[in-house]
Every structure is written in C-alpha cells, then in structure tokens.
Amino acid sequence: MATQTTASCTGSTLLQPLSEIINLPLDQVWREVDIWQSWFNILLVRAVTNIGIYYLWYLSLYRYSLHFLVQSGLSYSVMVFAGLENMHKYCFIVTLGYLILCQITRVYVFDYGMYSADFTGPMMVITQKITSMAFEIHDGLTKREGQLTPGQKYFAISRMPSLLEYLSYNCNFMGILAGPTCSYNDYKAFIEGTCYQPRHQENANGKENGKYKQTEPSPKNDVVSKLCTCAISLAVYLSLYKLLPVERSIDDDFVSSTPFHLQVVYLYLAMLALRPKYYFVWTLADAINNAAGFGFNGYNKDGSPRWDLISNLRILDIEFATSFKLFLDNWNIQTALWLKRVCYERCPINPTAATFLLSAMWHGVYPGYYLTFLTGIGMTMAARAVRHNIRPYFLVSDSYKGIYDVITWAWTQVAISYTVAPFVLLAVGPSLKFYRTWYFVLHLLCLLVVLVLPVKSKRRQAKEQQDDLQKDNQTDHNSTDNNCNQKEKTT
User: Fold this and answer.
1) Residue 200 annotated to the active site
2) Which domain holds residue 6?
C-alpha cells in the first residue's frame, strides 16, 4: 500500500523508507511528522524547526497547499461584500462547495482509494472554522440577544474580524493539520491573553481562589498525560490493525467458514483495533494546543485546572457508551459541536437527517461515507425510540439498570461497528457486500423499532411544552379577566 501511494504522490518522497517500515501511507507519515514538529516548535527550537519541517511538509503537498489560501480568500470576500442578512448562507455554500470540489478532484482525478496528496484534510478543519465564523458574525451583527440561544449568544461576534485576525484563526500552526476546530471568540481570548481571566475569579466551589488569580494555570500535567495516551494508542494501533483488517469481514472464505456470532465479534474487534489511530491524532493535536496555552476550561472541584476546552474525544466514554447518542457525543466532539451549531439548531425540517447528510458531505465523496451516515440516521431514530419507551422500565432498581446498561453497551458497540464498516471500506461494492453478509439485519431492525415505538423529536417536544405553557398562561389570564369583570359588575 505504501509503495502504491508513492507512485501517485506528487510531493516529496523523502520519508518513503519510513512509510514502508511502518506500512502507513506517505501523506499520513508527513502529517504525523508535522504534528510532532508543532510540538517541538512550542517546546524546543521554535524558529529552525518551524522553517525546516514546514518547508518539507509543503513539499509533500506541493502546489495543493495553495487551496488553503484560495478557500480562505474566497470565503472572506463573501463575508466582506455580501449583505449581512445572507452572508452566512453564501459563505457556507462557497466554503463547503470548494471543499467538495477539491475532494472530487483528489478522489476521482488523481487516485481513487489512495491517500496521495491528501490536502483536503486541513481544508476540512478550515471549512469548519470559516462556516462557524460566518454564522457567529451573522448572529452578532443581525440578531437581538433575545433571538439567540445561550450558546449562540456566547459565540456571537460583534464586529467583522480583520484579514489578519481571520487568517490567524484559520491557518494557525497549532491546528492547521489535525485541528481541532474552535470558536473564534475562544481563539481570540487565547491570543489576547484573556482566556484565564473569567475563570480566575472563582474555583469550582464558588469561592475566590487567590492562587489561581495570581498565576496562570500550568498545562504540564495534562500534556504529559495526553502524550502517554498518544504513545499507548499508537502502540496498540500498530500492533493490531494488521492482525484484524476490516476487509476480512467480507472475505468469502471467512464468511462461509465462520459462524455468524463470531463474525460479529470479529467486526467489533477490528473496529476496536482501528480506533486508536484517531485517539492518537486527536489527543496529540489537543496536547499541542495545551502546550501552547490554549484549551484552559476552568477548574475541577479539587481546584486543579481543566484543559479540555477543545478536546476531541473521551476515550473511556466511547468504549463504554451505552447508547448510540453517547458514543457520538464523545467521538470527534468539536465536529459534532460544529454540526450542531451550523445545522441542527438552525435547520427547520428534520434536523437529524440534515445533520447526518452534512456530515457525509463534509467527510468526502466516497460512497461508503454516505452509506454510513444514512445508516446512522436510522440508528439514531431507533436508539431514541428504545431509550424513550423501554429504558424507564429498567430504572426501578440499580440491578435492573445494570442489566440494561450491559445489554445496551453490547448493542451499541455492534451497531456502531455495523454502521461504520462502509466508512472504512469506502466503495459501494464492498460496503453492500458487507451488509448482504449480515442480511441487512440492523437496517430492518431499526425500521421495525421506529414503526413500533414512535418517538417525538426533541424539538417537537419542546414546542409542545411551550404551547402548553402558553395555554396555561392564557387560561390564567382569562380567569383573571373574568374575576375582574365580575368585581366591576358587582361594584
């Protein structure tokens, strides 16, 4: 695989021997080297390392790195010249459209299925930042506070950022490759050195803490802990991913000779071996930002600083999730928050389906992505129906709840593995072959659950509760008017 990638790569092949040794695509090797360079750029030799490794990395992408500036420049022009009322919509279309165009070019023009010159990875992070900023500017300059949710009010931007501020936010070296994305207001507070001030006034118990007012909290312990997590994740991934390839689950000999329950177990183990790759990249990116002083998020109850403002995952919560929603809430957290802010909270029709569709478009143009996220819509609806209709019966005692948690954990892990398999297989043929070997069993089960156990969406429930409250207020108001009229007649 590494050799094939080199043949289609248009950039530097300096690290080709390392790519062959660890059996990773060449562009991924460059990405990991550059992430480690960002770490050393903070702690060790800032100037020399920055110039040298960044030059080599741009050689690895060659002319494709210009797309970062083109995408940012087009979007900023839309922000400046389009009217404030529709600026966020136009910016969203231009930014996402340019990303999709680049993804189509990379996949179908250069090399299908390879990771050669994967310049769209950084563009995905930039797309999140640009679209988030556009909506936040729209909220801050066109809406009153009463029209915004508490979250939208916090993230709203009250003035148009300058070009320097805009490019610094989009293309800063800490998050240009692996992210994670962050809000403009949080990044601005970090750059201006005010990110600690609001959190210095109180500790978690609500009492003034002079120690933390006098000194900035140190990220050292959290950075060391996250680097240890990175080392363990990388070791696990390199040890297991060759032994448990997902592609074996559609191998004819494996399917014909393996009982179905063992196929389920194998799929879970294969996905379990694949996840540490993401744990490594996201945790390392988080550690880089923390080492630079970005990511402070207040204090714990014991007074220790929290450095999880832009953390992208919670590993234990992922591995022990007892519902589809809990798994998604703790996986790629910043992307989930971006989808919520720009789509779920603003889409008037079926926000769940719209959010999954946007996620598929943002990830890329491989058919497997769309099969995964379309399946995810049914999984989410079925899981919501089960939680609302069945879970209350198991909350009568701790033992019942423990049984429910064990069962739902097993189902969640199987459902996630089943849903994500096309995301790994990428192409239509292998993805559909996988689902055929499982007889589309979870698709049919989800459909059955949704039909038998219907559940109202959260937005509809909130609207009905608001309508009931308004009716109650109207009833009280009418009763008051009647009483006043009777008193007036008596008088």
Assistant:
1) no
2) 1-189
